[in-house]
What we know:
Radius of gyration: 26 Å
Number of helices: 19
Shape: globular
Structural class: alpha/beta
CATH architecture of the largest domain: 4-Layer Sandwich
Helix content: 25-40%
Low-confidence stretches: none
CATH superfamily of the largest domain: Aminohydrolase, N-terminal nucleophile (Ntn) domain
Number of domains: 3
Strand content: 15-25%
Bound molecules: 5-amino-5-deoxy-1-O-phosphono-D-mannitol
Largest sheet: 8 strands, antiparallel
Amino acid sequence: MCGIVGYIGNRNAWEVVIKGLHRLEYRGYDSAGVALIDNNQLNIYKKAGKVSDLEQFSRGKNLSGSIGMGHTRWATHGAPSDRNSHPHTSGDGRLAIIHNGIIENYATLKEELAARGHHFSSDTDTEVLIHLIEEILKQNHVDLREAVRLALNEVVGAYAIVIMSEDEPGQLIAARKGSPMVIGVGNNEYFIASDASPIVEFTKNVIYLKDNEIAFLKRNELLIKSIDNTVQTPYIQELELKLEMLEKGGYDHFMLKEIYEQPRSIQDCMRGRIYPKEGKVQLGGIKEYTEKLKNIDRIIIVACGTSWHAGLVGEYLLEEYARIPVEVEYASEFRYRNPVISEKDIVIAISQSGETADTMAAITLAKEKGATIFGICNVVGSSIPRISHAGIYTHAGPEIGVASTKAFTAQVTALTLLAFYMAQQRGTITQSQLINLLTELDEIPALVEKSLQANEKIKAIAEKFIHSRNCLFLGRGSGFPVALEGALKLKEISYIHAEGYPAAEMKHGPIALIDEQMPVIVIATKNSSYEKVISNIQEVKARKGIIIAIVTEGDTEVKKMADYVIEIPDASEAFLPLIATIPLQLISYHIAVLRGCNVDQPRNLA
Ligand code: M6R
């Protein structure tokens, strides 16, 4: 994943582009680069490292020009370095490109171009594409627009690209296939970006470029064509995004802000969808599939990372309430198998970004095999919702911290709504049960708010573990995916090795790791597996492990055994994941900050 920004208009392009790159840095921070056209001359500045390194490097250089583009990279082909940073140029240096995605047939193209005398100065797939365009310009005597179109017809893979040329200095060319791209429409100016965050402070009017579309932009002219050369009619829509959603709003980190936003984001996910007094759930996005939902035999959930953990919570909820078998699959495994799927199946893709390549490939495969696809996504208008038949937006708002927090709880909320909706439709729940559950669900944002009040205590506990090298997270039932998510949060932002396990599985291996140095974080709330979890805690204590227990307010039993306890408000088992996740996010956050880690941009991630 990389971030791309482009600008053409009357402002100073460097300022627009650099600001945009800062907003897009969550998409990658291995290197950054900018290309500007000033007086018909292409100036390129690029540097390994963060956008701030690029700014420092470019100080004192010619940053004039009102046409420009910039890129922030998450390395795939070629290590993070100055030479692999974007923009890349053609052999004669007159064309420049920035790219997000992967050109899968780049090796073959590179070989052919090398045989025609092209020399490459990077290890990237992107550089091959700009050389290909240069070669087509030379061989076919066409203009740049046509050369780009012809080149893209030869490319296999995914891309969002922007191209500039010294020979046609008043124009930007942008195209997409499988990677997101938005065009902001201003007054005699246009903006291009991977998402709307760099655009929102300049204009609210945007066009989401579709797959296989190419946009030709001049200051006061926009033409969109399909890759097969048909003119397209652009659909301009108004952004709902607000600028303050993209700022830290007084918090030290986006991650902390997003943790604290959860009472609101959970509420937003439920808004207009639950009617506790009437005992009714309404999900407009999947309504037309209600009959199908009543009659299906199973659901398959595909996702990656945190979203996969949310899927596991969904499995508990859907099986418990809607009484339907659920399989939860890593999208990256599912897509490379030959899974048994039919038109009777519903496949649910869960994704915060709505752009994760493996998840997209998994649903594309399932769709080909006739399944109905639902997307549970956060980013409105992203690719997964576009290729799904139906879906539920989570409405958590932009998640800028790379470590998912509010996206996870919003996904769990959406799955909770789906489970209750299906239970209602399939008659696997009574009306009075549903009224009780919805009444309680309505109160969950307040309970999440209350859980956040333990922050200072959690910080004090975190201080004790900043030098730990390992950590175990244990839970049972729906507490197990919460443990997995807790472990993922800790390892990705603090670089402490952490594992999540179903508590009872500990004795089948991981127990060997336990000694007096090993912190074991246990979800030990009062629910159906409470007694069993107490036994697991005793097993850890017998081996001198350190117990940090997440307990229900007022608990006395676990307190006697645990070294540290963090209380959370009492709630039914169905809602445990929404509340128990909060202290795990906070403990990881504080440990990572105290270890001096960059929690918003952990190393190697995007
Ligand atoms: O955008 P997605 O939810 O599809 O992303 C999938 C994973 O990359 C993501 O959930 C990742 O594991 C989290 N950001 C980690 O906190």
